[in-house]
Every structure is written in structure tokens, then in C-alpha cells.
Specification:
Layout: H1 3-6, E1 7-9, H2 10-27, E2 31-35, E3 38-43, H3 46-70, H4 77-89
Parallel strand pairs: 1-2
Antiparallel strand pairs: 2-3
């Protein structure tokens, strides 16, 4: 992140919205919007946002899987294939 170009006050957003949209879509770097010197929002291109959401979804699934393993709610590969063979053979 380039601090000088990726953090902007809300007043800049109000006056240069089109330029900021062009920047985030070309660079795929988010822009942090500040208000009274504090970060308040993030402007991000749709593709990067979708990629981030997909990555978060995958991390949630991995976390759920790890939790299942710790709780003993899992099967070995051999158990899975054995169950599949029983289903296919029926």
C-alpha cells in the first residue's frame, strides 16, 4: 500500500470520486477513506472485493473442518472409500 495515494480524506472523495474509482479499478489497491483523521471506510474494486469474500469463505470452511476434526467428527480416507463402495455396490 502506498500511504500517500491509498489513504484519502472524505473531502477528497467528495471532489474526486471518479478519479478514485479509476484508481482502484486500475491498481486493484483499496483506498482508505478517513474522516477527522480516523479511518472510516474502504473503497475497493469489485473483483478484489469478490476475491476477498471468496478467500474468507474458504478460511471459514477450513476452520469448520479443523473444528470437526478436533471434535472427532471426521472419517479416514479408507472409511470414506469403503462407504462409497458400499453405496455403489448396493
Amino acid at each position: 500500500m502506498k500511504i500517500s495515494t491509498d489513504i484519502k480524506p472524505i473531502s477528497f472523495l467528495k471532489s474526486k470520486a471518479a478519479d478514485m474509482l479509476k484508481q482502484v479499478n486500475e491498481t486493484h489497491r483499496p483506498i482508505i477513506i478517513t474522516q477527522n483523521g480516523e479511518p472510516r471506510a474502504v473503497l475497493q474494486d469489485p473483483e478484489s472485493y469478490e476475491n476477498m469474500r471468496n478467500a474468507i469463505g474458504l478460511m471459514k470452511l477450513i476452520s469448520m473442518g479443523e473444528e470437526d476434526i478436533l471434535k472427532g467428527k471426521s472419517k479416514t480416507q479408507d472409511q470414506v472409500f469403503s462407504d462409497l463402495e458400499k453405496l455403489v455396490g448396493s
